[in-house]
Amino acid sequence: MMLRETYALFIRELKHWYRAKVQIFMMLIQPIVWLGLFGQAFPIKLPPVALNGAPDYMSYMSVGMLAVTALFTCMFAGMSVVWDRRFGFLNKLRAAPISRGSIPVSRVMAAMVRAVISALLVLLIALLFAHIPGLQGLTVTADFGILNALGILLILMLLATAFAAIFVAISLTIKTQETLFAVINLLNLPLMFASAALFPITGMPDWLQAVAKVNPLTLAVDGMRQLLFAGSEGIYPIGVDILGLLAFSLVLVSLGIVVAMRALKEK
Amino acid sequence: MTAIIEVKDLVKVYNGNIRAVDGITFDVAEGEVFGFLGPNGAGKTTTISVLTTLLQLTSGECTVCGYDVVKQPTDVRRSIGLVPQELTVDDDLTGRENMMLQATLYGVEPKVAKERIDELLALVKLEEAADRMVKTYSGGMRKRLELSEGLIHRPRVLFLDEPTLGLDIQTRTTMWQHIRDLKKSSNMTVFLTTHYLEEADSLCDRIGIIDMGKIMAMDTPATLKKSLGGDVISIKIPGEVDYTDVIQSTSGVLSVKKEDSSYRVKVINGETATAPLLQEISKKGGAVTYVSLERPNMDQVFLEYTGRSLRDAEQSGGFDKLAASRQMRRSR
Ligand SMILES: Nc1ncnc2c1ncn2[C@@H]1O[C@H](COP(=O)(O)OP(=O)(O)OP(=O)(O)O)[C@@H](O)[C@H]1O
Ligand SMILES: [Mg+2]
């Protein structure tokens, strides 16, 4: 029964997460600082047309922060895999009569849940910022209903699943924490900046635009902005954003499982 | 007796050049406690890793419970329990949660698992600490939790890799008692590794002495010790009379060495030979003022078969892996 063991391992991951209060705090402090400093200190004055319909840059960038938060949370899912290898827990799982697939699948699921919860917390904070005098925050201008909310949830889930799959697979093939950090750093900044998460892509050079247009982060923020801002002109229609993300996560999860299964084979 | 573990010409070469296990062959009978005794780097963990399907063998054949470890790894995994050398219990779960997770991974029904967990936690005296986070446990407590985890699914064969490494004498002795109790209460087969001579001696029905990837000797502790040529009785008989001939002619005596008024007498079995020997001497008018019986210990056995003492072999290691791994956890 693959379901039973996957669920048990999934719960273990979540227990680790909510028990490590400091970790959650650290995870959230970064986007808060970004929203508080970066967003406030460098107000880029651009008309809503250039900002996917966002009323101001802060609102534009807040949406990017949701996606970036999901990305960061998923990166750290890899850490727990590396620790588990170091302390022999992975070997204990390998010696157990469980389906090997449950090891990556439970982790991807847990990383996805963590990422979505973290991103939603950042969303709340950004909304709150708009109501604090002297601070800028996320101002929603669309007719926001339950469908918009579900759309955002779906987009975050798909994005997080795709990223979680990549990082879990990478961390299962990697043996040490140092290497993992190196890989994370290598992927982290390019993924973030070669996307529409923080800056509109229209100002980018052509080659960077080409990269940004196929970055899952771009698809996610593009979709979410259309759900949050009235009259938003997306880079793609929202359906394309969602289908694109779905394709990304399906491909990456399948690839991730194949890579993970090879990495878990006995040597 | 049927063999439950069969190993034939097992070779494991790491990275193409490190011959960790160099052609070993042995059987373990059902219900037996079999121990691998050897210094650091002897190949003990490597052998266990192959038998528990964690490591691909280079050549040879191994079956556990009749299943081939290469061709039927899932069947093997289902029939065995493994308590690894390093501590693998999860720091950020409670003791009970750790046990429950293990039970789920081994497909034990939740209701049955709950009962067994209580039972096992009581056995290893962790009831009080059961609902505390494992990160608040001492090394000995973790090791005991680890042991009980290995038992949750009542495996037919239990692999214990250095079950008492890093534990104090007292905890070690209780651990031995747990293992003995287990053996008594079920017909479980235990395969353990150790580099403690006393452990091998007091726990195992049979011992394989392993060094540099090869089995140097394999038998019961008693036979291994006997093969060294018997026990030594030391006696002191003050006075000028030489009793060498009297002693030599007593039955069961192998040899005598005299030094001043002390005699070192080699006999086949010290326990049965002492009384007749003393009788013979007193018949001839000798007044014995001191007697001691020395039986060869496992250290001498190890020396005999590997050409070096276990402590020497260990010296180069300079280790306390358990302490080291605990430190690593702290810095997490
Ligand atoms: N993953 C590995 N890669 C390369 N060499 C290894 C690996 N694991 C073990 N070895 C080598 O194989 C040999 C046997 O190691 P093994 O861990 O089986 O010893 P051991 O008897 O369990 O020792 P200890 O008492 O220290 O646990 C050693 O020389 C060791 O350096
Ligand atoms: Mg070892």
Question: What do you see in this structure?
Answer:
The complex is a heterodimer of chains A (267) and B (332). Chain A is built from ten helices and no strands. With 267 residues, chain A is mostly helical. Chain A has one domain. With 332 residues, chain B is of the alpha/beta class. In chain B, helix 3 packs across helix 4. Chain B has 13 helices and 14 strands. In chain B, a hairpin with a 2-residue loop joins strand 4 and strand 5. The complex binds adenosine-5'-triphosphate (ATP) and magnesium ion.
Which spans of chain B have pLDDT < 50 for at least 5 consecutive residues? Answer: 316-332
Q: Would you report the number of β strands of chain B?
A: 14
Cα-based radius of gyration of chain B, to the nearest Å: 24 Å
Order of helices and strands of chain A: HHHHHHHHHH
C-alpha Rg of chain A (nearest Å): 19 Å
Q: Biggest interface between protein chains, with counts per chain?
A: A-B, 25 and 28 residues
The CATH class assignment of the largest domain in chain B is Alpha Beta
> In DSSP terms, counting alpha (H) and pi (I) runs of 4 or more, how many helices of chain B?
13
Report the portion of residues of chain B in β strands.
Answer: 25-35%
How many distinct domains of chain B?
2
Distance between the termini of chain A: 26 Å
Kindly state the percentage of residues in helix of chain B.
25-40%
The total count of strands of chain A amounts to 0
Question: How many domain units of chain A?
Answer: 1
